[in-house]
Give the backbone structure.
Amino acid sequence: MANTISVRYLGHACFEFDFNGTKVLMDPFITYNPLAKHINIAELNPDYIILSHGHEDHVADVAHIQQQSGASVIAIVETAAWVRRQGMPGDKVMEFNFGGTLNLPFGKVKMVYALHTNSTPDGAYGGVPCGFVFTIGDKKIYFAGDTALTLEMKLLADLNLDWAFLPIGGHYTMDMYDAVKASDFINCKNIIGMHYDTFPPVTIDVEEAKRVFTDAQLNLTLLAVGESMSL
């Protein structure tokens, strides 16, 4: 049976995947994002919520959305411990770590390296930030999370990635120029940009971003908040 995969951009680094009918929400930060005012979180009903790390701009809405949807929350061990402290049911929190792969009803999720910092909103140690590689049937999708450019990305080059979600805003993560290098490291030409324009330190020149990716013969997609596309 053919894959039916789509994604909707909810701002910053928050995306809602639809993997053949299973909804997977990444890094929910909507309520406090002024660019996402038109997104109604009361309508979000994910089956899974996946966190790349514990910074406020990636977890602000996780408790609210989990409580209304009953979603399972997936995160690295220490960030998962913070999730449990927010009152979410223990059986709805799934922890794993680097080298680990979760075999879930919609496909596989492998945790991979990211170069960033991590703490939870209460200031506690959040473990190490991470990225994820999704294998959904014959499709492979890399969600980098918050990361700088790192040589470990070259370990993904032989995966034949179909899509990569990369931060491009700079300041807290790699910028558009390093993201072009990252695209080469991971051997993926189809890039969806994230972690840009939310607040002044990560504001970018969108036309410049399009130009540098085009010059590198890469396909950069910058979705409007609320916009969906098929993968």
